[in-house]
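Handout, page 2. Input:
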Amino acid sequence: MENGRSAWLVFGLTGQVGQALHAAIHAGDPALLAVSREPPPGDGRVAWHRGSLEAFVAPAQPIDAIASLGPLDAFASWFEASSLAPARVVALGSTSVHGKKDSPDPAERALAGTLRDAERRLAAAAEVRGSALTLLRPTLIYGHGRDRNLSRLVCLARRWRVLPLPLRAGGLRQPVHVEDVATAVLGALRSRSACPGFFDLPGGETLAFDEMVRRSLAAGAPSATLVRLPGPVFRTGVGILRGLGRLDAAGEGVLARLDRDLAYDAAPARIALGHYPRGFQPNAETFPA
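Output:
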């Protein structure tokens, strides 16, 4: 890669959003520099640097923009310590900064606090350097079977042939496809003028949690049965499975949110970034076997 050519520096390109972004890069985009402990085989579109984010030292090549698609707190710490001052910084956070701040689970409250602190630190560092920061907060990401939410439920349904849910599990959700998240990141990078600000990034449809699960099972585990249980019975069953080490992800925070609305305003991202995400219509490719 030529030293004088400008580039985008991307962290997290091997993750689920990074994979979708990599696939959407075209010849008119700047060169990509990416960092990974285990770089994938080269395809001519990316110059890979082997190593961790913490140890990465940016090359002398001009960097027009930096995109962070991985953990926000790690990136904020790296950016604070770096000397780079790109025109744009585009980073992924999460709407967990809103949805988990009052969680009954201390670990989830701590996560929300970590996200909020990382947002503030990154914004302060970007302001000092004159970099326009676009902070994107996706909702529940799905799409290529690499998420830890819907894909996990589908895997349980495939294994058990049933998936229990409490009778009250109607909290609103806005699942966002991973390719739509990648498109929003690219939109912020490619835009003629910078799009600074913090933007929630919901999907194109608002639906109840149980309806979201029904559609997921129809697409990924059609032979499984969704069983509705009274709340106390459901919680007792979850407690037993957790005690057996078979359901470690279902903490009190998760259970408390099943009937709580987690819906966010899509208008700011639509106006600033042209974010028009698809509705929630999963298919067999959404949840690969």
